[in-house]
Every structure is written in structure tokens, then in C-alpha cells.
Amino acid sequence: MADAPLAQAPLQSEQLRNMDRYWRACNYLSAGMIYLRENPLLRKPLAAEHIKRRLLGHWGSDPGQSFLLVHLNRAIKQRDLNVIFISGPGHGAPATLAHSYLEGRYSEVYPDRSETEEGMAQLFRLFSFPGGVGSHCTPETPGSIHEGGELGYSLSHAYGAAFDNPDLIVAAMVGDGEAETGPLATSWHSNKFLNPVHDGAVLPVLHLNGYKIANPTILARIPHDELEALMTGYGHKPYFVEGDDPDTMHQKMAATLDRCLDEIQTIQRNARTQGVRQRPRWPMIVLRTPKGWTGPREVGGHKVEGSWRAHQVPIADPATHRESLRLVEAWLKSYQPETLFDASGRLVEELRALSPQGTRRISANPHANGGALCKALDLPKFQDYAVAVKKPASEYVSPTDVLGKFLRDVMRRNMTTFRVFGPDETASNKLTAIYEASKKTWLAETEESDADGGELSIDGRVMEMLSEHTLEGWLEGYTLTGRHGLFATYEAFVHVIDSMFNQHAKWLEKAKRELRWRQPVPALNLLITSLVWRQDHNGFTHQDPGFLDVVTNKSPDVVRIYLPPDANCLLSVADHCLRSRDYVNVIVADKQPHLQYLDMNAAIAHCTKGIGIWDWASTDQHAEPDVVIACAGDIATMEALAAVDILKGMFDDLKIRFVNVVDLFRLMPDTEHPHGLSARDFDSLFTTNKPVIFNFHSYATLVHKLTYKRTNHENIHVHGYAEKGNINTPLELAIINGIDRFTLAIDAIDRVPRLRGMGDHAKEWLRDQKIDHLNYAHTEGIDREEIRDWHWQG
């Protein structure tokens, strides 16, 4: 569409003048944060000692963001709207901090940055300064749920916040550099999943200021009709606000924003009275302004405003060069701060009146402090879904199939506060029972064949899209605004969201440790399934359990890893995770049928401890063991048990202790992780001097990393995935990576001193078994029946 028509200017002259003044106040504060440590209102001639010794920050996108925020304030007050703002441009904090400060919320949260001259000086000093606040919209920023430290997730976070929030409008400013990322490009399609009956609305604002750090941006340099076609093709109704004259731009933006809000409210009103008859074409805005708008136009003979030079610090050396100092002073004085702030340093009253009040302020909106709105899930009794286990390791059951039935009823009881997310794999991951509570969200076109197992519905609550980035962003936005969810994905491809997980974990750690005003939010729950040891059909590309290594690098205050060995343990772990707050919980559980080991009472006790001896699989009762066989993970547990079975048959007097780990961080010392074991408790399980054969689901080095400070670490011998695989049978894959029963038994014989001589023939037989089973797999394409149907003999 063309620029919004201006048949009548929506802003009266005084309103236009005051809104422009408010915008200039925002811009002044944004620039002041970058440069000033003293003399915040320029009531003295600017001197070198007033300038920060190290200039950090990003100016380029701030004026455009502040421009939008000022206009959102007008709309909020005029229409009594419930709005949060998401800042997509990188390093966009000066604008949002300035806005929060002018609204008064920042000083409420941080009294040392009061609405006074000294408070303003403190705001300036602490920006991008050691011990202060960063240049992203970090957790310290009131009103933020999106840091933007990594570009690409503003829209997915925005839509996650809007789901099941019918009264909320999320204004998401997308930077044009950000718009070049893959995650952002995919997240435009989120509009196909937004239901105007029970969801809120997202108003994307694509901010085209032309440049990234040092290069033009793609969307700013394609023809107007091509950009319009792109946004239309994404399913939006684009409106363009373009120019650099402030008065004209204010009128354009006011008219355009009014039109967009009218359309949003019409879409919602019609849907809520008549139902959803077709997928809405939601409005969006393309805002094209100069980069560094209102900043210095030229420095040293080079263009600044409207060029890449405005991206960060437009004038680099005012503390050491007199002319640069003069330019900074002229730039800051161009905003006329003496007309914007009173004698005490507070925003003048006529401009304060432009801000919404209370929780209608964007920076004080409770949805951006989601724990304040959070309600605990109404969870069914997970014990009611238990698998009956009469004898350990005698029956095969799909753990995720059992979990699916539990999640189905979690959803039924929480139809406005719980969603399940997954990349087109809910059925593949054996969570099909969830569809009995709700189908998949789908507002795009449908065909007759979809009805045959498609499970699609306008009112669905199962979120499926083949973009792990978008799904993770939705879930993060959903939980940060106080709701609950679970994201299930293939183990090999959870790496797609490695960096998103990193960002979210850092957000939680900062909020949990340092910001008491932020209320605890529901945990982000990741179910990692379709695991490495059952990827015999997909091959080497699908065999990668290394996400656990990424998780263990994050703060012990916020990350948890669980490897439940069977379905009953998975139910206990899932219930715990859905109740938790301020964590990222990673649950590793396969979808294929696996042996069941513990009845429900035993599973609850085992999961509560997180680690324990399985007496029924041990032979060291009331004695010191000769060897400890330990394991973590479903297949790792089965192969370890099979090794014990073999060793018991060969050496009837061998004293074996069997230890299973559910909570991986129990391996760490209690001085380094809240779930860690004390040295005494660890030694009581693993001994201080006996060999430990540890069979692990993931890479062996991770167990060594977690246990390297333990007394008996030199005797811990870990078997794990060794980056070997192809189209293998399950046992073949285990053998070539050294986690199979035969290899474990050989290792035990080698490590127990008294077996080294008497076990030679046993080792020879075990080596023959490996060769025989590999040959059988390559001849028949399947494992032998005694392997496929192995049971614990006891």
C-alpha cells in the first residue's frame, strides 16, 4: 500500500508539538547515555571531564524506536490499550531505557536513578559502564522480555507473548539488519497461527534505516513494490511511513497507527462475534527513517545521519579533540533540554501528561514481568498414568507415548495457559494422545485430505511448524509472559536452537540472581527425543547427543538435565519440571519402546534422589563391590544391565554395584551445583578406589567434566557416543561406539584385578559375540531376536 493518506491530520498543533518534544527528550537521553558522565542537562559548558572515558553504545536505531514508542503512548492513552514493546534492533536499549525513565517506571525500580538531575547523571553513568547496564534490552530493562543480544527473534517472542492473551497488543520493532536473519524470515509466518478469538495481536514494525554496522541492509535497498510484495506474500497488510521531516512523519505515523489499530480491533471484534471465517490479513508498518535521525549530519567531512557512521558512536573522540567536543555539545543542545526538563531535572508536566499511567505504561506492563501474572498449572496426578512393572526389565513400552497421555490431560485442564510446541513431530515423537485434547493450530488453507489424520484446527493449541527457531521463540515469549509449555524435538536438531537456549538461560540467570522485582516465570521445558541410539534408519546426521554439553556450560542456578530410564521415571520428572520456575529443564527420553525398570513408587523415590543404587541389579549387598557399573540414559541403562547379566553368569562371586543416574548434575560436587552430591555421598555410591564403568547416553567427556574433582575420578571409565555411525542396527551402533554389553563386560574384566587372569577366556567369547552380531546385522539387516527382545534374567 502507499503511504497512509493524510486527508486530515490526526494531530492537533499543540499535541504535535508536545509529542515532538517528548520524542526529542527520548533522543536527548539516548545520546546522553552514550556520552555523558557529568553535567547531564548541559547547565554548564560541556567540558572533556564530563565525557565518559570509554564511549560505548549504539545510536543509529534509537530515534526510530523512540518515535514509535511516543506514538504508541498516544494510542494507549486514547484507546486504553494493553501494549508491550519488543525492541528487535541490536543494541536498542538507549531508546527503551529513555522511554522507561520518562514514564517514571525506571526510577521506581531503581531509586538511585531518580527523576532528578543527579538521577539522570546516574542513568548516564551506568549505561554501558562496568557495574551498570548493557546496551541491549537486558532483563534489567523494565518492560522488556526480549534482550536482542542475538538478532532474529523479536517476532517469534512477540507472537509467543500474544498467544492466549486476548487483550494484549505486542508492538514488535524489527530491525532491517535483523530482518536478514533466517529465524526472523521464518517468523513472519507466525501470523498463520494467531487466532483473533482467543489470542492477542502483534503489530510488526519493520524499521528500515538503511544500514547495519558497515553495510547497507537488503530490505532497505530493494524497490518499494518488491518490498510491498514480500510483506504481502508473508500474509501481512503493509503500510508505509517514510521520510525525515519530523512534523510530516508524526502526522503520517499517527494516521497509520490509528488505521492499523482500527483494523486489529475490527478483526478481533468480528472473530469474537462471528467466529473465524478466514485467516485475517493483519496490518504491519514499514517505517523508513534515516539512520541516526536527528543526530549530527556530518563529522569530519563525512556524512553521518543517514549513513552507516551513525550506527554506533557518531562522534568518536570528544574527550580528546576540541572540535569533536563542540560538535557533541551542539548536537545535544539541539534538543533544547532546558525546555524539556524542569529545574529539578524532571520532565516538564505537559510532557509527563503524554505518558499512560500505572500498568498501562509500556515499561510497567505486567505481561513483561510474566511471573506477576503466572498461575500454577492444574496438573493431574501423574501416578494415574503409571506403567505396571511386576518385574524389572521384562516389558517394552514407549516412554513418550505414556507421557503423551499425561500431557493430554495437562492440556485439558489448562486450555488457556499451556501449549505444546514441536517441529511437525508430535506424532513422530509418540505424543499423539495430545491431539485428543487439542489439535494443531492452523489458520492457513486446508484441503479435504487434511482431515485424514491431519489433526488441524483453527482453535488448536498444539504448535507445529518446521522451524525450531520460531518454536523456541514462541515458547520463550509464552513463558516469559507467565504461561507454561513444553517443546519436543529431535535430539540431533535441538542444536538449531543452541544460541537461543544460551540467550534464554542468561536472561533467567540475570533475572533470578540480581533482579528481585522480576517475578519467577515458568520453566522452559525441552523434551529431547528421537535419540541417537535409535537413529538406525536416519543415519549419521541424526546421531548427535551433544546438546547436553551446551547446557552444562550455563549457570547452575538455571539449568537442569534429566535422563529418566523408563516411562514411570519420565512421568515423575515431567510433573516436577512443569511445576518449576526460572529453569531450563532438559529431559532426554526416547520415543521407541524401551524396557521398564521401576514401578511408580520406586520411580518417584529414584527421581527424588536423582541418583541411586538399584539393589535388584546389584550383587554387592552388605559388602564392598569389586566394580561399579553406572549408567545414565535409556539405552545406556539397558546395555549396562545386560553387561551385568553377562558378568553374573560368568563370575558368580563377582560383587557388582549398579548405579543409575536420572539427574545428571548429581554427579557434580554440591559446592558447584545446587543438585550436586557431597563428596561423602558420592563416595558412598562410587567408592573411593574401585573401578567404575560408566555407560553414558552422550559424549564420554561430559561425565569426566562433571566428575573431575571426585576422589575416585581416575578410576571412572566412561563409555559414550564416539561420533561413529551410519545406517546401523541398534546393537551395531552401540558396538561401534563402545557402549554395548560386550564391551562393558570386557572393560569390567580388565579393571577388576582378580579377573585379569581368570577372565581371558571370557573376554575371548565376548569379542566373538561382537563379531558375530556385527556380521548378522550386515547379513540380515536386523539384530538377532535375543537382542531385540532382551529381558533381565535376574
TrEMBL record:
Residues 591-792 form the Xylulose 5-phosphate/Fructose 6-phosphate phosphoketolase C-terminal domain. The gene is xpkA. Its cofactor is thiamine diphosphate. Keywords: Lyase, Thiamine pyrophosphate. Residues 12-372 form the Xylulose 5-phosphate/Fructose 6-phosphate phosphoketolase N-terminal domain. One of its GO terms (molecular function) is aldehyde-lyase activity. Belongs to the XFP family. GO terms for biological process: carbohydrate metabolic process. It is an enzyme of class 4 (lyase). This is Probable phosphoketolase. CDD domains: TPP_PK.
